[in-house]
Design brief:
Layout lengths: L5 E4 L4 E3 H16 L7 E5 L4 H13 L2 E5 L5 H11 L3 E4 L15 E4 H10 L15 E6 L9 E5 H15 L6 E4 L6 H13 L2 E4 L5 H10 L4 E4 L1 H9 L9 E5 L6 H10 L3 E9 L3 E7 H6 L6 E2 L4 E5 L12 E6 L6 E2 L14 E5 L5 E6 L4 E3 L2 E3 L1 H9 L7 E8 L3 E9 L5 H10 L8 E5 L12 H15 L1
Parallel strand pairs: 1-10, 3-4, 3-5, 5-6, 9-10, 9-11, 11-12, 12-13, 24-25
Antiparallel strand pairs: 1-2, 7-8, 8-18, 13-14, 14-15, 16-17, 17-19, 19-20, 21-22, 23-24
């Protein structure tokens, strides 16, 4: 690796690999010299090189990194911090009011104090750390799209396996310049940044995603790869952000990416290829759909990554036939190490209670999440199935379907349309493509759909909002 090669560009500075290596080692040594039995460091930071330095330094020292989300309220921050049982916490100066000495019993440093310690500790003593063979290096929180977030933990080997998969499937190398468009609090974007540094490529970070800033980065730089989520991609398509001369690989995950949006990207931008992959915080990579696969299997979430085995099972655990819907189980060397304070380690075959099916060619299709299923008069309805039909309509920018309690039916499906009023045409399209019992019984309009920090629909919040709106109309 050329020591002068640029590792990170974050809006404030351009960091070479020589500088990056020294910063990570300084961080690691500082943590090793900090006498704490519980080797966990939490940090509340915006996107930037310091975030990645603390994360990578913790991994190098054998510590567990616990990123906290600046968008959480003070109560949520304290709750997650206490749950993590971190030994110390590093907080961006502008967020110091989130904590005080009475709310947490641990060492608290401001970001400026931590930077001061790093600048004074100038000697790199060694690049070797006395750590266990496969330590837990990362504690994150699931997005909470259907309820309260849970703390999950990962061992280093799971991401090393993921790095190999990224190289084999996506073809990422040290020559790539990668744009991280979203928050590093999302596993998707954090993984994109760390894996790029692992390969020796260049990472450009946006402090905060805005379509205009992302478009400027795409059109003025030498970017070859972009990590994104569907909501970001769609907002970029609206302002023609992908119009450029050089080829670009788009790696998307995190939510259901609509067929019309994918088609628009590949049709109007022939220099762009994409990989849309299905994965979760617990399972990591599961399946992927390439641009070429999309032309043949547009509704699929793709085929399994090479080290992955997928089974779709019935309630009695027998394996489903092709095209038969059941619960999705995954066997993977990239899976997480479990949830925090969980008594038992994860099983060899894991499920996050997503429902779907495999076709005759081994491609996976999603029905929806089992615990998000609406039970309408004893009939099962997956909200995602209705949303796909709604989002295909030109009049609908974005939609979400939730189940609202009903005294007669148990639950009824309620459609929420973003920004625009639904029309008779939209209803007719739903009636034409779906069984009558799946057609939403109530329709609502919202200025902007509520999202989680990682850009997914916050279904629990949307369900609560819908219930409040409907109760007001009664």
């Amino acid at each position: 690796m050329n020591p002068d090669h640029i590792a990170i560009i974050d809006g404030e500075e351009r960091i070479t690999y020589e500088d990056w290596y020294e910063r990570v080692q300084l961080s690691a040594q500082w943590l090793q010299q900090t006498a704490h039995e519980q080797k966990r460091v939490a940090f509340l930071l915006s996107n930037g090189a310091s975030f990645l330095q603390i994360f990578a330094g913790a991994a190098s020292a054998g510590w567990t990194a616990v990123p906290l989300d600046p968008r959480w309220s003070r109560e949520e921050c304290v709750e997650k911090l206490l749950l993590s049982e971190a030994a110390l916490v590093i907080i961006e100066d502008r967020y110091l009011n989130r904590f005080d000495k009475y709310s947490v019993d641990m060492q608290v440093l401001s970001l400026s104090e931590w930077k001061g310690k790093m600048s004074r500790n100038t000697q790199v003593l060694s690049n070797k750390c006395d750590i266990e063979n496969d330590p837990i290096f990362y504690m994150g929180f699931t997005s909470g799209s259907t309820g309260s977030p849970k703390a999950f933990i990962r061992r280093q080997q799971s991401w090393i396996e993921s790095f190999r998969t990224t190289a084999d499937t996506f073809g990422i190398t040290h020559q790539d310049h990668v744009l991280i468009a979203g928050t590093l609090l999302s596993s998707h974007f954090l993984y994109g940044a760390i894996s790029t540094l692992y390969f020796g490529g260049t990472v450009t970070l946006l402090e905060k995603f805005t379509p205009v800033k992302a478009k400027k980065a795409l059109q003025t730089g030498d970017l070859t790869v972009m990590y994104t989520v569907p909501t970001m991609t769609e907002s970029l398509l609206e302002i023609d952000a992908f119009e450029r001369e050089h080829s670009l690989l788009v790696i998307s995950s995190g939510a259901d990416w609509g067929i019309p949006s994918k088609k628009q990207l590949v049709t109007n931008n022939p220099h762009v290829t994409f990989f849309d992959f299905y994965g979760t915080s617990e399972l990591s990579f599961v399946s992927y759909l390439s641009s070429n696969d999309f032309l043949q299997k547009p509704s699929s979430v793709g085929r399994p990554f090479s080290p992955i085995q997928i089974e779709v099972r019935r309630a009695d655990q027998t394996v489903c036939q092709p095209n038969e819907t059941g619960r999705i189980y995954v066997k993977s060397p990239m899976s997480f190490a479990g949830y925090l304070h969980e008594v038992r380690p994860p099983e060899e075959w894991l499920t996050v209670y997503d429902m779907g099916w495999l076709d005759e060619d081994g491609y996976l299709y999603m029905s929806g999440r089992e615990n998000g299923m609406i039970v309408y008069g004893g009939l099962n309805i997956f909200p995602e199935e209705i949303e796909r039909v709604l989002n295909e309509q030109p009049e609908v920018k974005r939609s979400v379907v939730v189940g609202v309690p009903d005294p007669y039916w148990g639950e009824i499906p309620v459609a929420i349309i973003e920004q625009r009023q639904h029309s008779k045409t939209v209803r007719q399209a739903v009636k034409k493509k779906l069984a009558a019992y799946k057609v939403p019984k109530k329709w609502l309009v919202i200025d902007q759909i509520i999202e989680t920090s990682s850009g997914k629909i916050a279904r629990a919040s949307m369900k609560q909002w819908a219930e409040e709106q409907l109760s007001c109309k009664q």
